[in-house]
């Protein structure tokens, strides 16, 4: 089996279960800042990750040096 982990690190981590007590990291896929909600739909073989609305700082990092990235849904297809 596989485990899909979405944390607030901006990545979707995919692990393969080697045996009941051991897992191997297969890879990480970039998602979006603060994305931490995901849903795998086995019938569609797709992973959905929600990225919330957030501020992205732009150089030179002053009080008004940012852009707003709107909330969006990312879709990932399952690869064997």
Topology of helices and strands:
Layout lengths: L1 E5 L4 E9 L2 E9 L6 E5 L4 E6 L2 E4 L8 E4 L2 E6 L3
Antiparallel strand pairs: 1-2, 2-3, 4-5, 5-8, 6-7
Annotation, overall tally of beta strands: 8
Element order, helices and strands?
A: EEEEEEEE
Weakly predicted, low-confidence segments: none
Number of individual domains: 1
Question: How are strands sequenced across the largest beta sheet?
Answer: 1-2-3
The mean pLDDT is: 90
Strand content: over 45%
Silhouette: elongated
Structure, explained:
There is one protein chain. The protein has 80 residues and is mainly beta. It has one domain (2-77). It is 0% helix and 60% strand. It has strands at 2-6, 11-19, 22-30, 37-41, 46-51, 54-57, 66-69, 72-77. The protein has a three-stranded antiparallel beta sheet, with no helix packed on it. A hairpin with a 4-residue loop joins strand 1 (2-6) and strand 2. The termini are close together.
Short description:
The protein is built from no helices and 8 strands. It has strands at residues 2-6, 11-19, 22-30, 37-41, 46-51, 54-57, 66-69, 72-77. The radius of gyration is 16 Å and the shape is elongated.
């Amino acid at each position: 089996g596989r485990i899909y982990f979405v944390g607030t690190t901006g990545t979707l981590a995919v692990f393969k279960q080697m045996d009941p007590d051991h897992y191997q990291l297969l890879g990480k896929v970039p998602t979006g800042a603060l994305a931490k909600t995901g849903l795998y739909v086995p019938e569609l073989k797709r992973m959905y990750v929600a990225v919330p609305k957030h501020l992205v700082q732009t150089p030179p990092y002053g009080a008004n040096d940012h852009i707003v990235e709107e909330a969006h849904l990312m879709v990932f297809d399952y690869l064997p």
